[in-house]
Amino acid sequence: MTRSIIARRSPIHGTGVFAARTLKAGTEVIEYRGRLITHAYADRHYGDGGETGHTFLFTLNERYIIDANVDGSDARWINYSCDPNCQAVLHEDDKGRPKKDRVIIEALRDIKRGEELTYDYGITLEVRQTARLKKIWECRCGSPQCIGTMLKPKSRVKKA
Questions:
Q1: Which residues contact 153 (CB under 8 A, 6 or more apart)?
Q2: Cys bridge to 75: 11, 32, 104, 146, which one at CB 3.0-4.6 A?
Q3: Contact assessment for residue 119 and residue 80, using Cβ atoms and an 8 Å cutoff
Q4: What ranges do the domains of the chain cover?
Q5: What do you get for the CA distance between the two ends of the chain, in Å?
Q6: What pLDDT tens digit does each residue of the chain (160 aa) get?
Q7: How does 13-29 read in b/e, with b if 16+ C-beta sit within 10 Å?
Q8: In this structure, are residues 12 and 118 in contact, taking their beta carbons and an 8 Å threshold?
Q9: Where are the beta strands (DSSP E) in the chain?
């Protein structure tokens, strides 16, 4: 079978992932893989990540994070976009084992051969989103819908 994706230099940022053939909407493109770590381990070794503007960590569930810095798949190279053509979908283990949960990147729409794959990272930081942080997490997707940052607004707690 022909390989469906290829990682190479991206016009968006660094390395990106591109369709090596046409991908139909709904296609499971690649699993986001890496070493499983706990949230506490991630906090100790990587901090909150807010100051780097770069991470290969993907929250899997309340217990685990996928650390694609170690044994990561090419999914770690998929860039962010405000107008993505893919989405990350959580596949929970049918026996309730959090270690067996998986994240699959799926095509949201038909993707042409040679087109770069992108998805919305859904990044929320627990700290105040200053202009400096928004600049660190600057979006470079180039979409007409671009909001300028990869950061999502923090959820506001409604008061009764």
A1: 124, 129
A2: 32
A3: yes
A4: 5-136
A5: 57
A6: 458 999 999 999 999 999 999 999 999 999 999 999 999 999 888 876 556 656 799 999 999 999 999 999 999 999 999 999 999 999 999 999 999 999 999 999 999 999 999 999 988 877 888 888 888 889 999 999 999 999 987 765 555 5
A7: beebbbbeeebeeebeb
A8: yes
A9: 5-9, 15-19, 28-31, 35-38, 57-59, 64-67, 79-80, 86-91, 102-107, 118-119
Cα–Cα nearest to 33, from 80, 81, 91? 91
Amino acid in the structure at residue 124: T
CA-to-CA distance for 155 and 10, rounded, in angstroms? 32
C-beta neighbour count of 113 within 10 angstroms? 11
Please give the Cα distance from 31 to 111 (Å, whole number).
Answer: 17
Pairing of strands 79-80, 86-91: unpaired
Cα dihedral 72, 1, 107, 26 sign: negative
Structure tokens at 100: 């067996």
- The CATH class given to the 5-136 domain equals mainly beta
Calpha distance 6→123 (Å, rounded) = 25
